[in-house]
Amino acid sequence: MSPKRKFLLDLIDKPDEAFNICESELGPLRLAAAQELFEERVQQIPLLKHRAEEAGISRIERYEDLVPLLFAHTTYKSYPASFVEKGQWERLLKWLDALSVPDLSGVDMSGVSNVDEWLDRLWAADHRVLATSGSSGKCSFLNHTAGDQDNKRRHFKYAAAWPVQAASKDRPVFWMGQVKGPNSAVEAGQFAMANWGREGAIFTLTQEPLRISEVSRMAAMRKRMADGSATPEEIAAFETESAVKGARGNEEMRTFADQVLDHRHEPIYLIGFWAQHLAIIERARERGIADGDFHPNSIIGAGGGVKGIPLPPDYKERVNTFYGNVLRPGLYAMTELSQPMPRCERGHYHIPPGLIVLLLDDSGEKLLDPVGLQSGRFAFLDLAYEGRWGGLITGDKVTVDFASKCECGRHGPVIHDSITRYTQLGQEDNIGCAGTIDAYIRGAIA
Amino acid sequence: MNAVNQTQISRVCHIVKGEVVEGAELEYGPAHARFTTPALKLDDLVWSRQAPGPAFDTPLDEILDILGELGRWLERDPEGLVRQALENAIRNNPMHPRVMQRSYEMMPRIFDRERLMVQIDNELGGKTAVDGWKPVTNLLSGRSAAMRAFPARILHIIAGNAPGVAAVSIARGAVTKAVNLIKLPSNDLFTAPAILRGLSAVAPGHALARSFSAAYWRGGDDKVESLLMRPQFFDKLAAWGGDATLRSAKNYICPGFELVSFDPKTSISMIGREAFASDELLAEVADKAAADATLVEQLACASSRYQFVEGTQEQADRFAELLQQRMGTERQLASAEGRPVPGHLREEIDGLRVMPDYYRIWGDYSGSGLVVRSEEPVDFHPEFRVVNVVPVKDLRDALRFVNVATQTVSLFPDERKIELRDLLASAGAQRVTCIGASGGMEGGLAHDGFLPLARLVRWINDEG
């Protein structure tokens, strides 16, 4: 890794210092590191080169220079869905290659029959490609290297529960996601176990690996339902299968909730989605367990996107009241980011030195002035990545406080804990006669 | 000063049974487009079933006279209301100002007597069944009977992407003598009230004017819709539907409260191998295909988005290049320059540049026209004058991309419509036209697979 980037990334080994460096000191270092990274990547990634040429950017001298070079999160799923549907694995590889730094062309894809095998081949060749869960029906694929993963694990070790607790491998870890599979949530679970878990006291909701082909199979089925090539009996079988899976998931959740509740009087490490915490609360009610009955040194994390899951309006309050006075670190994380931002005592997210946060206007085109409180679209350049270009525009709306000091006393700027998705902001009810009605014919409406 | 103007709050009025209701009790909209409305009084927005609607027995001729007057009033715009609606539409709509202006100029024609009579003849079998009970004399039993296209109680949820939608909805409600409540879309808060004020201006206190109300509430607001969308108050929900509209409306559809859905559609073109007979012909076909694609700045359901070309990839590329060149042409319902392609779409298209073997792109993001050629239709929805050209060996290979969401298929050459029209209809398409004629939607023909006037009345029997 290039030296200026490495210097910034290594600062995380001392998180109390890393999260307390003033902007005037960090700014020039970050820009220099960004230039160092750009110079290298622009030769390696054709899309970055295209962007740079189009915007006439040959050097990174100001943060503004980075804006036209950011990729949309959709870039990492820009392959045609037909590659997966038709099993055109060589083409999919070629697509990923064009977004990757390492050369993937040598990975043998002969005999691959589904997307999991395609990912397995890449991993076997040490290309640690992460896939998103594809809630929209299409998975993103993001390449990262073994070194990227090591850096990320280190970042999690020092930042995941900062500033409330330093990681030590001495507590039961409860992980509510999957533990095998090429996915960032799985990776986070592995990091949690590696960084916090006591020997013999690691509990997981399921041992089933995350199957990406399952996700694409479901997406393909939804597409077939939409274009009318699925028969009524195929649709019935698909719906039954979904219902069975749901029921099995409920049973597993109940067993898992019992294990959590049985350990509630010792310091545990428990991370899950909001809906899963609500399921634990439901089980606790059945067992007559009162609110606030957890060991105060427990680390409890709740979060994750709420991606269309119906939750009661007071879900946060319910979860917080139930666990009571415990340690609650918070992390602003996403698949695309290898250096998530931890939340301070005052509830604000602090930015690690190796991450350049770029706050853009709603349309993602202009950098907002770094003064006072500003809300806009969250974009960043993650200086850590060796496997791909780390510059990205997200779909998140965030508020950044550009004041030189956070309320916690450390240097800013910081991001407020009020992150929303642009798509969730509530579509203004503009109605037009043009569009797609896939949703209706897919049966989602009826 | 600009900033001040942008944050100015618009005042939207309601129309309640022909009367203008002003007020600013409620406030809505995103920060850059706030607007106020009067308080919503639901009791005033329904008509009791205990009495016939005001215009149920008004002769059609009288209604057509008033509508003709209304058309002239809209042209004259004596109170500047049409201009205000136009200005607002230009502010809140991605459509090019000149195209929006021309759309407004075309609006009065919707109320022409001759034009409306063609619709009544073709869709309702003439005015006899509208004005009274039309005898049915050919029953096998020999019984005497009569049928009436009886006026309905209609809740309209209209689209705001083109002013014609408000005008067409009002014209349809008027000639069927219905009672009409129009739910205003937030992207066109002014056109329907302006037309209805015109109606009251040319026929003050008339039964026809009293048959119309227009109000805004947030689409999908349960507190409003669960109370209004009941068969006790309305027979029909005439919904120009976005996804959210129908998602909400489906909760209320029940026997007695019927959905008449003008749902969002996609349109396509098919270019047969005959187009490659000569360079001149190919250029001509590309020009017409460009007209279909840029129709209403590609904001309409009839605007062509995917164009299937019968030929090799090289042939498709030749067509795509000519198509892109012709897209930046000023036409009646298209500007030459368009509006810049927004970020989300640019990102999608930039993503395709990663794969030059698979995709080829002509044009830039200025908005005048961009063409993507790919082996399979792209996964995103082409808009902002973006066309996806897909080569196929045989036009029949494109049929698998046609479904019930496909409205218009514009086709070259004309004679191949005969070979393809049944197959297209069978796959779900609703309209087959010659290439270049996607925009020729005309009253008196079916719309989205049905005859709107026939669906907007209740067919009632008087049986002997």
UniProtKB/TrEMBL annotation, chain A:
Domain of life where this protein originates: Bacteria
Name used for this protein in its record: Acyl-protein synthetase LuxE domain-containing protein
From TrEMBL, chain B:
Keyword NADP in annotation: yes
Organism domain of life: Bacteria
Gene Ontology molecular function terms on file: acyl-CoA dehydrogenase activity
Keyword NADP: yes
GO biological process: bioluminescence
Keyword annotations from UniProtKB, A to Z: NADP
A Pfam cross-reference name: LuxC
The name this protein goes by in its record: Long-chain-fatty-acyl-CoA reductase
UniProt source species: Metapseudomonas resinovorans NBRC 106553
